[in-house]
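stage 2 :: seqdesign
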């Protein structure tokens, strides 16, 4: 499985490099439809002029192009023949595409290339920022049976220029709850991780996993929480979680689970805001008090001062207190 993930990741890097070259060569006002090369190892951009302002009509037009290729081209349609696509629907900037059951007949590599081609092509349409795939009405799952979730063009350009299947080490800055549950404490764990995963996803996964046993930090997010999608664009990180995030049983301040994620992600230089969604919806309230409709910025006031940490540590040491999660 790990070898397969590395191959898929490498293909996506090739796709990114090819598409980047194609973008430099396009004339102003032109877009591109992405196809699969003859060997099914990469994507090929073909210039295509998009006319009109009706978003769904443009999406339908491009889907037709993705299912066909020019007669003189030596590459393949991104969407294999026989796969039927239901009527596309939009919810704000979110596009929903439903494919017929035979979508699952593609090999893992071919499916990722298909998905990358569709997303990179359709997100060029004005008003389409994110895309969700379903198959026969059910969420699309990856090779590990996890929901693929919301995708953007950025979902397919992770780690450009590097060996995608290499393992890396990084020191993260993560925020968990303090002992009293009213402030965030800073932790700086060093993690070894696969190049197949983005830093954003790594951070949120570590927050869900919880702090190291025996530390002075406490969990803020239920471990059952699933990441349905995560991407960053123009300084905003879009985090889509399932409903388990809302079922938070911990006796901590209402703000801490939200800002545990926000403050941790905004430690990355390319992120200044975090937009949450639950199962793709933003019109949700966390603990009936915090609206998730608007992006969140870093909140330093919630971080416990170093002086308080030292004082608490000294008090625990004198009393022989053992930290239990």
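stage 2 :: out
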């Amino acid at each position: 499985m790990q070898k397969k993930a590395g191959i898929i990741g490498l293909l996506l890097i090739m796709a990114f490099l090819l598409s980047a070259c194609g973008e430099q060569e396009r004339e102003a006002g032109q877009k591109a439809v992405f196809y699969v090369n003859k060997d099914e190892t990469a994507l090929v951009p073909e210039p295509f002029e998009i006319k009109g302002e009706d978003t769904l009509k443009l999406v339908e037009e491009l889907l037709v192009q993705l299912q066909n290729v020019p007669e003189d081209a030596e590459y393949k349609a991104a969407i294999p023949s026989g796969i039927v696509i239901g009527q596309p629907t939009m919810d704000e900037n979110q596009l929903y595409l439903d494919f017929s059951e035979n979508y699952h007949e593609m090999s893992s590599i071919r499916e990722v290339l298909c998905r990358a081609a569709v997303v990179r092509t359709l997100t060029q349409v004005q008003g389409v920022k994110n895309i969700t795939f379903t198959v026969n009405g059910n969420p699309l799952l990856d090779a590990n049976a996890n929901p693929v979730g919301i995708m953007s063009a950025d979902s397919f350009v992770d780690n450009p220029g590097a060996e995608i299947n290499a393992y890396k080490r990084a020191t993260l800055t993560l925020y968990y709850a303090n002992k009293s549950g009213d402030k965030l404490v800073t932790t700086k764990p060093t993690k070894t991780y696969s190049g197949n995963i983005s830093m954003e996803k790594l951070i949120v996964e570590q927050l869900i996993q919880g702090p190291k046993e025996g530390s002075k930090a406490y969990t803020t997010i239920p471990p059952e929480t699933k990441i349905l999608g995560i991407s960053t664009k123009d300084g905003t990180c879009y985090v889509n979680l399932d409903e388990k995030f809302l079922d938070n049983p911990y006796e901590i301040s209402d703000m801490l689970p939200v800002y545990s994620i926000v403050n941790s992600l905004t430690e990355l230089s390319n992120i200044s805001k975090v937009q949450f969604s639950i199962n793709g919806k933003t019109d949700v309230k966390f603990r009936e008090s915090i609206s998730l409709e608007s992006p969140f910025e870093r909140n330093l006031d919630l971080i416990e001062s170093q002086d308080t940490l030292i004082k608490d540590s000294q008090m625990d040491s004198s009393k022989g207190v053992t930290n239990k999660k």
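stage 3 :: structure notes
- The longest strand covers residues 31-37.
- The longest helix spans residues 2-25.
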